[in-house]
Design goal:
globular; 282 residues; six-stranded antiparallel β-sheet; four-stranded antiparallel β-sheet; 10 helices; alpha+beta; 21% strand
């Protein structure tokens, strides 16, 4: 059995309902050394405070607050606070083995840590969204993060395919046909024989909006009609593809400025018009 965590250590872990993410792990570690172990997943690590030392296979590595680290599956490692700090706060993503091609395992052992501010910011933002995840948004962010890691580990300048307007149009047709379904860009990528990042770049270039934002807007448009027909908000949420009412309400209020309940109640006063300053009702 491994050594128990001291009282000075704190851990919060959960498994979001998002394909590809096995676990989210946030921790404050002090006066504790992880024993040598391995995971069946890719581990993406960012440090929020302090510094970590770790041995990955036979390579010695370190991670601090301005770096990003990636540990490959099935490779033994340990972990402990750097002596200068004595503790650290970190956020881990444990990602399914298909997150990156298996042939990059050796590269990840040799070059486990990168200084990349944009990549670190993208990973931090993804953690923020995993508290109340939106699957399509998370899927997009995760695919772009994976693409960046792949370029870094392959040690070559990224070869980015130019956006394709025709592919963007095809993706729009696909999304229009799956607005109320559990739509995924991975499914669309397989159907259109393109990568998820390429689909996102092509769609955003052509329409000025991301695929995720487009689907949310289409769902809100459909929701308005259903609410005005008298359908309860909880049922509307599931009918149009949101995974729960809180998720639906958050997006609806952002788009319409009021909650679904207030929007539906406003129909009781129709066809009166809103009073304007200095005027009565017309």
């Amino acid at each position: 059995m491994s050594e128990p965590l001291p009282e000075s250590c704190r851990v919060v872990a959960w498994r979001p309902t998002v394909a590809g993410i096995a676990e989210v792990f946030h921790a404050r570690i002090a006066d504790y050394r992880y024993p040598t172990h391995s995971h069946a997943t890719w581990t993406v690590l960012i440090v929020d405070h302090g510094a970590i030392r770790y041995d990955l296979d036979t390579r010695h590595h370190g991670a601090v607050a301005d770096t990003v680290s990636i540990l490959p599956p099935d490779v033994v490692h340990n972990g402990y606070p750097a002596e200068r700090f004595g503790s650290f706060r970190k956020r881990n993503l444990y990602l399914d083995s298909g997150f990156l091609p298996y042939e990059l395992v050796g590269r990840a052992v040799d070059a486990s840590t990168f200084q990349d501010g944009r990549l670190r910011a993208a990973i931090s933002a993804l953690h923020d969204r995993l508290i109340a995840p939106d699957s399509l948004d998370v899927e997009t962010r995760l695919a772009l993060i994976a693409e960046t890691f792949q370029h870094r580990l392959q040690r070559r300048p990224p070869s980015i395919r130019e956006p394709e307007p025709t592919i963007a149009d095809q993706l729009r047709q696909y999304l229009d046909g799956h607005v109320a379904a559990s739509v995924t860009l991975n499914d669309a990528a397989r159907s259109l024989q393109r990568s998820v990042p390429h689909l996102v770049r092509s769609f955003t270039k052509r329409y000025g909006i991301s695929p995720h934002a487009y689907v949310v807007a289409k769902r809100i448009e459909a929701a308005r009609g259903l609410l005005l027909q008298g359908m309860p908000a909880a049922r509307v949420a599931t009918e149009i593809g949101f995974h729960d009412q809180a998720h639906f309400t958050r997006h609806f209020k952002r788009h319409v400025s009021v909650t679904p309940a207030r929007y539906a109640a406003s129909a009781d006063g129709a066809p009166q018009r809103m009073r304007r300053p200095g005027h009565g009702y017309g």
